[in-house]
Amino acid sequence: MRRVLGIETSCDETGIAIYDCTQGLVAQAVYSQVPIHAQYGGVVPELASRDHVRKTLPLIRQVMEEAGIEPGAIDGVAFTAGPGLMGALLVGTALGRSLAWAWGVPSIGVHHMEGHLLAPLLEEPAPAFPFVALLVSGGHTQLVEVRGIGRYRILGESLDDAAGEAFDKTAKILDLPYPGGPALAQLAERGDPTRFHFPRPMTDRPGLDFSFSGLKTFALNTVREQLAQPADRDQTRADIARAFEDAVVDTLVIKCRRALKETGFQRLILAGGVSANRRLRARMNEAIAADGGETYYPRLALCTDNGAMIAYAGWHRLNAGQCEPLGFKPRARWPMESLAVVRDEGLVNSG
User: Could you tell me which Pfam families the record lists for this protein (predicted)?
Assistant: First the structure.
């Protein structure tokens, strides 16, 4: 198994990539639907799936042309099979299975969060097993013990809103444009870190689970109280954004340090859209280094949804002889601990 085409259509980004086990990532492209959904303030599932129908095949042609690769040079097809929006997943699954059947090659349905988890392995230097992974995005916040590909144990996860979801909802409270997370982080750069102090939820008790809904409510109440005052509204919004961001970042850092201590591991990887947050990276690097550990991240382009992570994760599973039948169905919900173990773990980390 040399070259794998990866297709990502789990939500509102169409990602296509080709991974080659001898060359690494040879070509990729991502089409974002942000302009479509911005007018609604969030992702509209039906519009997302319709746009995947329009964009996926042209993007595949574009990536293959850029790589100078014909269909006969593709050895396998990987597609996101879950979790995600069912309509969006159906587009990638149907197209991925159809292409694999037409080209006479095997295909594999990839778990979206496993794709994120393995994305840092595309970088140099890549983390060695075992490690703890913080998967932090709009839909998930999870701490995972990772002993190999498919050897996963969930250490903790959000009991309500994911961190990225809390970012987006708080951004909406602050009247920031969609997508809210990056807009809130940008506004927080102008904020005074000493003016407000938000709680660090669930850090005063044992365990590795998260909860961000109460923090979002705290932000809402602060906005209602403070913006009713005649003070500088723009600066107040920035100060609230900074306090919220600091609270989320500190919470994630505290839980990650706790997870490394409990497992005895020295390596931490961060992946998912929120892992691109600059303040999170800076504080996490400092805290983990102070404990004698190491932190790893994917490049910024591979933090958000992309086809490269799907192609790479798919390559490992296809190379181990795993594949899906023609009638394979996507899964809106899919526990990562249920994934099969990849026993042939000769990792290729070219990126």
Answer: TsaD (PF00814)
Q: Is 43 annotated as a binding residue?
A: no
Any known ligand binding at 314?
A: no
Determine the Cα–Cα distance for residues 175 and 193; give it in Å rounded to an integer: 20
Is 4 flagged in the annotation as binding? no
Instruction: Give the per-residue pLDDT at 327.
Output: 86
Is residue 277 over pLDDT 50?
yes
Helices 163-173 and 213-226 pack at an angle, to 10 degrees, of: 20
- Residue owning tokens 């927080």: 188
Mean pLDDT across the chain, nearest whole number? 95
- pLDDT confidence bin for 294, thresholds 50/70/90: very high
Q: Do 283 and 313 belong to one domain?
A: no
CA pair distance 1, 319, nearest whole angstrom: 5
Beta-carbon-side half-sphere exposure of residue 186 (alpha carbons within 13 Å): 10
What value does the CA radius of gyration of the chain take, rounded to a whole number of Å? 20
- Is 277 part of any known ligand binding site? yes
Query: Do residues 20 and 138 share a domain?
Result: no
How far apart, in whole angstroms, are the C-alpha atoms of residue 177 and residue 180?
6
Does residue 156 contact residue 207 with C-beta atoms inside 8 Å?
Answer: yes
168 is in an annotated binding site: yes
Model pLDDT for residues 21-40, shown as the tens digit of each residue: 999 999 999 999 999 999 99
- 305 among the known binding-site residues? yes
59 found inside a domain: yes
100 and 8 together in one domain: yes
The answer to whether the annotation marks 139 as part of a ligand binding site is yes
Q: β-strands 267-271, 131-136: how paired? A: parallel
The answer to the question of whether 135 is labelled as a binding residue is yes
Range of the domain at 7: 3-118+302-338
Burial-class residue 283 by CB neighbours within 10 Å (0-12, 13-18, 19+). middle
Backbone dihedral region of 109: left (phi > 0), alpha (psi from -120 to 50 degrees) or beta? beta
Average pLDDT, integer, range 105-122: 98
Write the CATH number for 23: 3.30.420.40
- Residue 320 in domain: yes
Same domain (yes/no): 186, 262: yes
> Is 137 annotated as contributing to ligand binding?
yes
